[in-house]
Design brief:
Blueprint lengths: L1 H8 L9 H6 L7 H22 L1 H26 L7 H16 L4 E4 L2 E7 H18 L6 H21 L4 H17 L8
Antiparallel strand pairs: 1-2
Length: 194
């Protein structure tokens, strides 16, 4: 099944680009309801996350979160012997939700169909993590609990430590990346230069 997904998502079947399926799964959904629910959550938290991180950093975190949450999902599925597709969209959106709830734990939230019940963002995050941990431990197949947990943990880590470690120090990393790509292109390494 991994091989089928790999060749389906990459443009060149002989390519060794293993991140392509994980990146493209960031935009995958199981059904129209799944997509609608994810888009509603993303829309609800998008203004907060963009004001916290800015547009460019948000895009970098969102795409990274999709890859990371899909990878966590793959690892969990291989460990349990379940070879089902992994959809990284929910994991990436969990990153957004977890990042906002971590930075603004006292913000008041409500469920769309039950607006009379409010709760803090910190309480919501704890409940979601507890639910997904139970789902992963008990083998529930309602959601991709591993992807949700991977996304939530990445979001919490990023707004707590990652911004300082990665985003504020990105210039030397980007420069090293461009130098490495230039050297590989010059040696016939198959890389493309921009």
């Amino acid at each position: 099944m991994r091989r089928v997904m790999f060749t389906y998502f990459t443009s060149d079947p002989s390519s060794k680009a293993l991140c392509s399926p994980m990146l493209l799964s960031t935009f995958s959904h199981f059904s129209l309801f799944h997509m609608a629910a994810n888009m509603y959550v993303l829309w609800s938290f998008s203004s907060s996350i963009v004001s916290l991180l800015g547009c460019e950093q948000f895009m970098a975190v969102y795409l990274s979160a999709g890859v990371i949450s899909t990878f966590v999902s793959y690892v969990a599925k291989m460990a349990t012997g379940r070879f089902e597709p992994s959809l990284g969209a929910s994991g990436a959106i969990m990153t957004v939700l977890a990042a906002v709830c971590t930075k603004m734990p006292e913000a008041k939230l409500a469920i769309v169909f039950l607006p009379m019940f409010t709760f803090t963002a910190g309480s919501a995050l704890k409940a979601i993590i507890a639910f997904d941990t139970a789902g992963l431990a008990l083998g529930w197949r309602l959601f991709d609990h591993a992807a949700h947990l991977g996304g939530a943990l990445f979001g919490m880590w990023y707004v707590t430590y990652g911004h300082e470690l990665i985003w504020k120090n990105r210039e030397p990393l980007v420069k090293a990346w461009h130098e490495m790509r230039t050297k590989n292109t010059g040696k016939g390494g198959g890389g493309r230069s921009n």
